[in-house]
Write a structure and sequence with these properties.
Radius of gyration: 23 Å
Number of helices: 2
Strand content: over 45%
Shape: globular
Distance between the termini: 66 Å
Structural class: alpha+beta
Largest sheet: 19 strands, mixed
Number of strands: 19
Order of helices and strands: HEEEEEEEEEEEEEEEEEHEE
Length: 259
């Protein structure tokens, strides 16, 4: 009878331990979940824990996921309080940080390694204690706005002979603060107001005026900008709808990360 009592207690202990494990696993998964794919056009994939899986509508996205859309693909990541991240075609985004917003997991920092990302941040994710960043290889974007688009390219642009890193920001509503990245020797930040455009070429800012004004830099201004980058000095060039401010640009652009 004594052995039966021990056996009964042992079985009860094992059952309780198993229940605790089964409870912790979903909780940990929920804590790492930062959003859900709510829309998908074409095809996209997610790299997770060393495996590549096809993206699908209603699929949870987790911390440290790497999302890549194909040339025919785009997707929307739904977040808490109706916030969303809309990833364009041929784009790559990483989920680099997370936090809890009203008890729900949400991204606190994402990386745009290439392509186009449109962010809509509303509700609690815009709270004074909530931080959200969209970072590229040459820029750190601290968000105080509601809606804005961000593009990152690593292809040479006409008139920029020494630069292969470009972050472009267009703000629809609110304000977005764009800062030079960790690899830049000049530490600068610029606020981009609603309806305006800002380009960070390597480590130098170009204020393009109205949103979508990246093309406002004329040929002469672009050539002058390229000369300023090559010389590594701060210059001011009036060009098109805005002005370029060198701010100590590096002669050699930061290395472009592999994709």
């Amino acid at each position: 009878m004594h052995s039966n009592l021990i056996s009964g207690r042992g079985a009860a202990f094992l059952a309780a331990a198993l229940l605790a494990i089964l409870t912790v696993v979903p909780a940990a998964h929920a804590q790492n979940t930062v959003g859900t794919i709510t829309q998908l056009q074409g095809t996209a994939s997610i790299q997770r824990a060393g495996a590549t899986i096809a993206a699908a509508v209603n699929m949870p996205v987790l911390l440290h996921d790497k999302i890549t859309t194909d040339p025919n693909g785009s997707l929307t990541l739904g977040l808490v309080d109706n916030s969303s991240l809309q990833l364009g075609a041929s784009s790559t985004m990483t989920i680099d940080g997370s936090l809890l917003v009203n008890g729900v997991g949400a991204p606190s920092q994402v990386g745009l390694l290439g392509g186009h990302l449109h962010s809509i941040i509303v509700g609690a994710m815009r709270g004074s204690t909530t931080t959200f960043q969209v970072n590229t290889p040459n820029a750190v974007g601290a968000v105080r706005g509601t809606g804005w688009s961000e593009d990152y390219t690593d292809q040479q642009r006409q008139g920029f002979p020494t630069c292969l890193q470009y972050t472009d920001v267009d703000v629809d509503e609110g304000t977005v603060q764009l800062c030079t990245g960790p690899s830049c020797t000049n530490k600068e930040c610029r606020d981009v107001q609603a309806g305006h455009h800002l380009t960070l070429a390597c480590c130098a800012f170009f204020e393009g005026g109205a949103a979508g004004g990246v093309g406002a830099l004329g040929t002469a201004g672009a050539i002058g900008l390229g000369v300023g980058l090559a010389a590594g000095v701060g210059v001011g060039i009036a060009a098109g709808a805005g002005a370029f401010s060198g701010g100590g640009s590096s002669t050699t652009p930061p290395a472009t990360p592999s994709k």
